[in-house]
Each structure stands twice: as C-alpha cells, then as structure tokens.
What does this fold into?
Amino acid sequence: MNAWWSGLAPRERRILLLGGLALVLILAWVAIWEPLVQGRSALRSEVARMSAEAVWMEQASDEVRRRARLEQRAPALPGGGGSVLTLIEVSANAAGLRSALTRVQPEGEGARLILDDVSFDALMGWLAELEQRQGLLVTQLALEGSEAAGQVSARILLEQR
It folds into this structure.
C-alpha cells in the first residue's frame, strides 16, 4: 500500500486526502449528527404532547375531585336511616316536582307514585337521580301526554334495588 501511495503524484494524493476527509465528514453527518437532530426533534414533540396531556390530566383530576365532593354530599342510599317515602318526598322537593306529586303510596319495599302535569324532562332527570344516587329502581312507568307541550302525567312504581 505504501508503494502504491508513493507512486501517486502529489496532486493525486491531495485529491484522495480531500476525498477521504469529505467521505468521513459525510459519514459522520449521516451516521451521527442527523440521527441526533431527528431524535432531538422527536423528543421535543414528545415533550409538547406530554405537556398537553399533563394539562388535560390536571383538569380531569379537578373534575374528579369536584365530583367526589358532590358524591360525599349526596344523601345515603335508602335503608340507611330514612324510609323510601321520605326519600321520595325530599328528592321531589329538591327537584322542584313536589307540587306535581299528587300521590305517594307505599308498596312492598318501594312506593307507587302519581304525578300530574309535570315536565317530561324534569321527570326523567328526577327518576335518573333516584336510580343513580338513591338506589331506587323504576320497575313500572306509565306516561300520558298532557294538553300542554312537554307536560305529562305519570304513574310510577319505585322499588329498592
């Protein structure tokens, strides 16, 4: 190899040295520098994504804490000290449906209710509240439309779960 190198003209040696140096620089760029730059860019986008997720998680945790406080304030399930009839009366009053509640009659472990001229939306919200928070189950529901739009008369049988 030394004989071959010695046999080259000085101009050829310079061209080979500069070409070899350019090749080393290109290889260093492709094999080392470019992956580092791409990795840095990927890490920056990952940090931005994770920061956005952290902000969302903070908001979600605040919502979870707020709902947990509401759950703690919610009345206990029936059978924990109050009767089903009392629970129905109190929750109907809280929902603004007390005036529409014309009859509450005990039946087994639950109660039979009759409501006249009540807002359908308010009634459905109240029944959902009774099922989700109070542990009562709507086992029978008969609705009859009223002359006023959105108003119904209802006959309901509620039972404990």
